[in-house]
């Protein structure tokens, strides 16, 4: 189904949209930074990393290889430093994984571009859908065991403190689901499957809950900014996939 407004945003209005979305993202993140942080050096560093992340995700949604994967390497490297310096060594796993996928992506995408130099997305077969679903199921099943093993070495990704969302949903399992889905979505994106944006939409919704529960409001703002971009990315990739 074609939507004229989205056709314009991903077509003749693309540059105007990118600029407006980026400015809105910078304003939202800056407001969150001033209102919810102590303005420490680490806070300033993460704000800078967040701005790089904005360039990364909007470039990925518009299939720009060097801008998307290049800035993705910068953003994920910054996130690794943030997590390491804040003592959250377990949370370094996801950005480390994403960093190396962007390294791979910058070479892989360059081999699959259209005449304009933009990456050509591809549709997923039933087999890919089944493999993805199996990966998610196995990941959810194994994660608690792996997390406990990492915890024994002081590298736990998620701490299970028995807290609940809405009084009955385990905060631990929300984190587990968010972690596994984000890893899956990132892999699907780098492999050029357009359905990755459906996963990112789900991931962003789950991460929003995690960030609100943990009082991490600047991350919550970032998640909402990313969510808008995810819908645009979904439409852009599917439109390009269909030709």
UniProtKB/TrEMBL annotation:
Sections of the chain in a coiled coil: none
Keywords: Cell membrane, Membrane, Transmembrane, Transmembrane helix, Transport
Location(s), subcellular: Cell membrane
The keyword Cell membrane belongs to this UniProt entry's keyword annotation: yes
InterPro entries (UniProt xref): NMN_transpt_PnuC
Membrane topology: Multi-pass membrane protein
Main location (coarse class): membrane
Pfam families for the chain: NMN_transporter
PANTHER family: NICOTINAMIDE RIBOSIDE TRANSPORTER PNUC
Similarity comment text for this entry: Belongs to the nicotinamide ribonucleoside (NR) uptake permease (TC 4.B.1) family.
UniProt name for this protein: Nicotinamide riboside transporter PnuC
Classification lineage: Bacteria, Pseudomonadati, Pseudomonadota, Gammaproteobacteria, Moraxellales
Annotated gene: pnuC
